[in-house]
Amino acid sequence: MNSTPGIVSSDPRSIAVRSIQIMADGEPADFEELVHPDAVNREDQVEPPAARVGGPKGFQATALWLREAFAGLHYDIHHVVAEGDLVALNCTMSGRHVAPFVTYTPDGGVGTAFPPTGRTFAATQSHWLRIQDGKVIEHWANRDDLGQAEQLGWVPPTPVYLFRMARAKSKAKRG
């Protein structure tokens, strides 16, 4: 992979790695450079409505959603495997929970709101990316959401945390 920020080789592995890294540190131009205008994120079902659009804007909205809740968001890439236009990455996402993390329902309403715990986490993930025309055209993932929830104190929830969740959800619904 090219080590110069903002410059990505045409190698599918490099494109895939950088497309994950920009979730933590990318600017709008990075998303335009790396994400195909017709790109689909197969993981957007619980994300904010702004993240449910295709292309660079949707992927950037996902990044902003994650960055808002998790300070110091970072991805350590452990393995990258490519076959043709498909690239699989094994990584660890880490950060500190500093703001409410809100999930959404299929119709775009507020699903669950996890108020900040201040705790750090490091959760394993596998990302699958299809590359077309030198850009990400499709993304889906497998994540250790339960491990992340346990590290952040979301499960098992204490009665006090359940109350805080209800307040956070009510606040998120008000906008």
Automatic annotation (TrEMBL):
Domain of life: Bacteria
Alphabetical list of Pfam families matching this protein: SnoaL (PF07366)
GO biological process: polyketide metabolic process
Signal peptide: none
Taxonomic lineage: Bacteria, Bacillati, Actinomycetota, Actinomycetes, Propionibacteriales
Protein name per UniProt: Ester cyclase
Native source organism of the sequence: Kribbella qitaiheensis
